[in-house]
Amino acid sequence: MTDTTRTDPANRQTAAWGAVLSMSLCVALLLASEFMPVSLLTPMADGLGASEGATGQAISISGLFALVASLLITTVAGQINRKSVLIALTMLMLASLVIVAMAPSFAALITGRAILGICIGGFWALATAIMMRLVPPQDVPRALSIMYGGQAIASAFAAPLGAWLGDVFGWRAVFWALTPLVAVNLVWQLSVLPSLPARRRQNFGTLIDVLARPYFRRGLIAAMLSWGSAFTMFTYLRPFLEQFNGADATTLSLLLLVLGLAGFIGTWAAGRFVGQQIAPLLKLPALIMGAITLALLFTGSSTVMTAALLAGWGGMNTALSVIFMTWMSRNVGDAPEAGGSLMVAAIQGSILLGALIGGLLLDSFSITATFVGSVALAALAVILIGNGQRLLKPVKLTQTLRRWN
């Protein structure tokens, strides 16, 4: 096993907070790159001579490549220093933005989005394991909340800012505007990330071994149901607000901004209040977001009530990531990269599946059916999780792993 004592900040019980902040910026830029095109769909389709439907599929292809990359990254990276892997992924993100900004054709757009998907899947698969090495164990929830603060930033500002810049300067300028920010992040990572040698060789056998643990499988299914519920609702939030609330463009932007800004509170609260007892928290995201989704069906005509409910939903949505990734770090601590790969693959798959289920319900029935479907998935998650104890590593296994380490 590689000796990482001299290069791993967590082994010295010190925290590399500069590296944590650089990871947070990387999260913000990744999510902005991933979801910015949603607000630029029409001008991108016009500029490339493609239909909006085809352009939308090209945009979503990043999710498919993210799913595949999340499962392959730890095996493909092998014994490569994890700092080098992160730097390579950031360079790929920069390349993908340049390709999309210069895209002369629909095929070039697909290529750029596929490369971005590799970045997304690879980064998220390694992120939690790296956080566990950048800070002492007791600071992991706080570090995760800081990293997911980048998610809140992107959620709050990417879509409205992208729409405005695209209207004023053109959609290509939006992607060009992201490139210097990614370049700065690349330089920052080079300077603040410590050397992170691979701790042990990863292979598909490691993934299978982790997946064979009953408590982890239950947690993985619970995470899939929770994220599937969230994205069944979130993907189709705009048509809901337009139909139930009669929201115009200005009201819609403000409501989405409220939802995004609430994410900052969610990440802060999760980092502050996630303690040693993680089990009781696991069902909270599905329980609260499911209840809010159901409540929106009865109060959606009131803008004030809708804003209040969306604030609660947005805060819990970002807390969801911190809670489940903290659970993963504590219960698959002997194989965090394998656990992270499986978690990211499950989340990406559930996002795609949630959007598919929501779309089918919307097209076949109504937006009400879509939201009811979201509530049903949340209810299944709550039932599966229960008090959370069956998602925790058995005490005997914990003691065995401690002796082994």
TrEMBL record:
<keyword id="KW-1133">Transmembrane helix</keyword>
<feature type="transmembrane region" description="Helical">
    <location>
        <begin position="281"/>
        <end position="298"/>
    </location>
</feature>
<feature type="transmembrane region" description="Helical">
    <location>
        <begin position="171"/>
        <end position="194"/>
    </location>
</feature>
<dbReference type="InterPro" id="IPR011701">
    <property type="entry name" value="MFS"/>
</dbReference>
<keyword id="KW-0472">Membrane</keyword>
<feature type="transmembrane region" description="Helical">
    <location>
        <begin position="215"/>
        <end position="237"/>
    </location>
</feature>
<feature type="transmembrane region" description="Helical">
    <location>
        <begin position="304"/>
        <end position="328"/>
    </location>
</feature>
<dbReference type="InterPro" id="IPR036259">
    <property type="entry name" value="MFS_trans_sf"/>
</dbReference>
<feature type="transmembrane region" description="Helical">
    <location>
        <begin position="114"/>
        <end position="134"/>
    </location>
</feature>
<feature type="domain" description="Major facilitator superfamily (MFS) profile">
    <location>
        <begin position="19"/>
        <end position="390"/>
    </location>
</feature>
<keyword id="KW-1003">Cell membrane</keyword>
<feature type="transmembrane region" description="Helical">
    <location>
        <begin position="146"/>
        <end position="165"/>
    </location>
</feature>
<feature type="transmembrane region" description="Helical">
    <location>
        <begin position="340"/>
        <end position="361"/>
    </location>
</feature>
<feature type="transmembrane region" description="Helical">
    <location>
        <begin position="85"/>
        <end position="108"/>
    </location>
</feature>
<dbReference type="Pfam" id="PF07690">
    <property type="entry name" value="MFS_1"/>
</dbReference>
<keyword id="KW-0812">Transmembrane</keyword>
<feature type="transmembrane region" description="Helical">
    <location>
        <begin position="58"/>
        <end position="78"/>
    </location>
</feature>
<dbReference type="InterPro" id="IPR050189">
    <property type="entry name" value="MFS_Efflux_Transporters"/>
</dbReference>
<feature type="transmembrane region" description="Helical">
    <location>
        <begin position="249"/>
        <end position="269"/>
    </location>
</feature>
<dbReference type="InterPro" id="IPR020846">
    <property type="entry name" value="MFS_dom"/>
</dbReference>
<feature type="transmembrane region" description="Helical">
    <location>
        <begin position="15"/>
        <end position="38"/>
    </location>
</feature>
<feature type="transmembrane region" description="Helical">
    <location>
        <begin position="367"/>
        <end position="386"/>
    </location>
</feature>
<protein>
    <submittedName>
        <fullName>MFS transporter</fullName>
    </submittedName>
</protein>
